[in-house]
Design a protein that fits this description.
The protein is mainly β. It contains no helices and 13 strands.
Length: 111
């Protein structure tokens, strides 16, 4: 009998074989057993236009953003130089107009 591997996404042992793919009923992840799986998930951040961002890129805001906890508004078109990518509830740490801000990548475009 063939040994079915655990789900690579959630490590569930309740996976099953469906045609040419394995399927996890808990997280709905599907994968091809013949395709090599990488053990390291590469952290990638894309801007609102789908361009890949890397540390040190320059970005431009695509809409006005109100900063939480203050009355300050970051205006559309404001530029940040030398961003830093982070993994968490936001993807970008940067300085805009001298203030340190944390942004989601969906509100910026690559300059």
């Amino acid at each position: 009998m063939e040994s079915i591997p655990n789900c690579p996404a959630c490590q569930s042992e309740h996976t099953y074989h469906d045609g040419t793919f394995y399927v996890c009923p808990e997280c709905a992840h599907e994968w091809d057993p013949n395709q090599e799986t990488s053990t390291t998930d590469e952290f990638q951040v894309k801007d609102s236009n789908g361009n890949l961002l890397v540390d040190g890129d320059d970005i431009i805001l695509i809409k006005d953003l109100k900063l939480k906890g203050s009355s300050t508004v970051l205006k559309k078109g404001a530029k940040a130089k030398g961003i830093r990518l982070v993994d968490g509830d936001h993807e970008i740490d940067c300085k805009i107009d001298g203030m340190k801000v944390m942004l989601k990548a969906c509100f910026v475009k690559k300059a």
